[in-house]
Amino acid sequence: MKFNKVLKNLSTYEAGKPIELVVREYGIDPKEVVKLASNENPYGTSPKVVKKISSLAKNMYLYPDDSMFELKEALANKFQLDSKNVIIGSGSDQILEFCIHAKCKTGSNVLMAKTTFAMYEIYAKQVGAKIIKTKSSQHNLKEFSKLYKKHGADVIFLCIPNNPLGECLDKKDVYKFLESIDKNTLIVVDGAYQEYASFKDESKKICPKDLINTFPNAVYLGTFSKAYALGGMRVGYGFAQEKIISTFYKIRAPFNITTLSLAAAIEALKDEDFVQDCIAKNFEEMKRYEDYANQKGFEYIPSYTNFITIRFEENLVSKVVAQKLLEKGMIIRDLTGYGMNAIRITIGTNEQNTKLFTLLDEVLEELK
Amino acid sequence: MKFNKVLKNLSTYEAGKPIELVVREYGIDPKEVVKLASNENPYGTSPKVVKKISSLAKNMYLYPDDSMFELKEALANKFQLDSKNVIIGSGSDQILEFCIHAKCKTGSNVLMAKTTFAMYEIYAKQVGAKIIKTKSSQHNLKEFSKLYKKHGADVIFLCIPNNPLGECLDKKDVYKFLESIDKNTLIVVDGAYQEYASFKDESKKICPKDLINTFPNAVYLGTFSKAYALGGMRVGYGFAQEKIISTFYKIRAPFNITTLSLAAAIEALKDEDFVQDCIAKNFEEMKRYEDYANQKGFEYIPSYTNFITIRFEENLVSKVVAQKLLEKGMIIRDLTGYGMNAIRITIGTNEQNTKLFTLLDEVLEELK
Questions:
Q1: Which DSSP symbol is given to A111?
Q2: How close B263 comes to chain A (CA, Å)?
Q3: What residues pair up with A133 in beta bridges, in sequence order?
Q4: d(CA B352, nearest CA chain A) in Å
């Protein structure tokens, strides 16, 4: 059977290894496995959310409310938008798909940083679009401008702050750049980690309302998978002017969100104290990673997220370090696939981080 | 902003109205609203599934196991397949998308019955494919053959049994037809209601293993949303030979299923007694609808599913009947959008069906 040509050389996204896999492959007691690989909120799900899920489980024979009225209203209220400016996705991932499917086809140009969220490229390639990347790994708006002038673009992806590196553009620089972009280019501002960045440094904060009012061609993406501690529930959202949102609705499959995911997200929005508390702890713990890296003489990228990227010199191979940690039950992310000799570690709880330092010490000793 | 041309004239799928909407719009007590519109299993979620969901809710901060190892194994065991023949989707809907995205582009031909599941056409149009439909509303394989010989097709959709009409092709006729189809045409056998059809009549039963072994170009689709009573959890599956499945994997977004959905589906598969019991009750209650229709002189389509389609003569307008029932808190599906003066009613519990007959009597009286 012949399939669409564009699929021929596509690679599939490699997700962070789940705990279940390590248990199966290395026979490690699940209680001993620590996963600091997928930038989840390590402080667990809000107890209010857990209660809500349990109370609704008996209704799962019914389809979800496909209008998503309540969640859209809750998000609109929080961000002072109209619910017509809101679309809900199975993770903000799915809104990335909507962006690509709405704007791109074979031969379209998609502009992004060299090292950024892998799905931008994967979704773009699925429709045959051409990927244009900066030479710099981290977001460099001068390079973005040069490439845009040279090639144009149907979609531009800005990951603010950037995953998997952790750096973050300033809001004022982003705005200045966006002013130079043609209104027929779709600008995607991926704010999956914005809660962290704006907590650490106000100058990084992107206000979705102001963004989409200032730039009618912008889409702002947010997620419940990170600070809101709902990675397992798959809920993200997109904000944009109504014309863009209504086009996305033409692409969205009905019932793209489970009933429990909708309810969990609504409940999570009510528990802001929990979220803010988790973010504060995140940056306290982040300091321990910076100290550790300094102590060992490792270079790290100052991070505005809930993870940290540590680079190695030639004497250490990130792939080997990650594998050895995995065999000890510690799951982190190797960035070899992104062309870097580096590892990305999610900032865990105090206890998890202590364990990481201990095991990494062991691995470094073994590799001496 | 200009979007892809194919999106211009697309319509969006109109889902069955959720109970929440009727409560909001007509101010009816949610306890009084009955939804017989989306072919859910009216006997509720298996208590074992409810227990499982509650026990796992606290882990929702972690991403799902994207390998979906356990659910794929469970399905493979049940259907005597290898897990390489299995892909999981956010409802079988998502596998329909995979089929279209793998095979179709602008100008592709997609063949289907005139009145069948609306998403076949919507997904096909999203990529600019041309829709070829039989003249007959119900599946007519002679017409399928003629149209196939004339136009060819990249994808053929067979809904066995058919939603929203309820009729069901015989397995032997399906096989005979499929033998005449070129191996480069993807054949999609949508078995969303197969559990019902094969319970009622063994000659309707399609064995997925035999189907994909006999026809390397066939995909079998199943769902947990109907007999397995998990409409709110969004889990469906596709079975095919490995070459097809691995291509679908290139299109699938990571983490397309929530953790609770995976767990619920695994648990639901363990509770076959519950499912069989629900199906038996379904056909007992269906008899009441047939009797009711006969009594009133309404024509109905003999159904192999958990719903029944009742046609009206010119003296009744299905849209009006459905609206009047809605205002009384009874949600059913009007088929005007499918070009028919007919309503589709999901077979509910004994009590729900009694209520339907009472309210429909009232409506018929009012419309006299």
A1: E
A2: 11
A3: A112
A4: 15
Residues B300/B310, Cβ–Cβ less than 8 Å: yes
Q: Which residues pair with B346 in a beta bridge?
A: B307
Q: How far is CA B225 from the centre of its chain?
A: 8
CA of A302 vs chain B CAs: smallest distance (Å): 25
Instruction: Kindly state the average pLDDT of the residues A311-338.
Output: 95
**How sure is the predictor about B12, in pLDDT bands with cuts at 50, 70 and 90?**
confident
Tokens 């859209």: give the residue: A72
Average per-residue pLDDT in chain B? 95
User: A344 forms bridges with which residues in the sheet?
Assistant: A309, A333
Q: What is the DSSP string of A140-191?
A: -HHHHHHHHHHH--SEEEEESS-TTT-----HHHHHHHHHTS-TTSEEEEE-
Q: How confident is the model at residue A349, as a pLDDT?
A: 98
User: Amino acid identity of B141?
Assistant: L
CB B276 within 8 Å of CB A37: no
DSSP state of B203: G
Asked whether the beta carbons of residue A61 and residue B41 sit closer than 8 angstroms, the reply is yes
Q: Give the strand pairing for B307-311 and B299-301.
A: antiparallel
Q: What is the DSSP letter of A337?
A: G
A20 CB neighbours in chain B (<8 A) are: 65, 67, 69-70
pLDDT tens by residue, A223-265:
999 999 999 999 999 999 999 999 999 999 999 999 999 999 9
What is the per-residue burial (b if ≥16 Cβ within 10 Å, else e) of A135-166? eebbbbbebbeebbeeeebbbbbbbbbbbbbb
What contacts A330, CB < 8 A, 6 or more positions away? A33, A34, A36, A355, A356, A359, A360
Location of structure tokens 């998000």: A75
Angle at A50 between CA A49 and CA A52, to 5 degrees: 65
Using an 8 Å Cβ cutoff, are B268 and B237 in contact? no
Tokens of A278: 């988790």
Pairing label, strands A155-159, A186-190: parallel
- Tell me whether the omega of the peptide bond preceding residue A161 falls within 30 degrees of 0, making it cis: yes
Give A119-130 pLDDT, tens digit per residue.
999 999 999 999
ipTM of the shown complex: 0.94
Q: How many CA atoms lie within 13 A of A281 on its CB side?
A: 19
Cα separation, B254 vs A174, whole angstroms: 29
Say whether A61 and B40 touch across the interface (CB within 8 A): yes
Q: Torsion over CA of A300, A301, A307 and A313, rounded to 10 degrees?
A: -40
CB A194 within 8 A of CB A222: yes
Rounded to a whole number of angstroms, the distance between the first and last alpha carbons of chain B is 51
Query: Whole-model pTM?
Result: 0.95
Among A2, A62, A230, beta carbon nearest to B61: A230
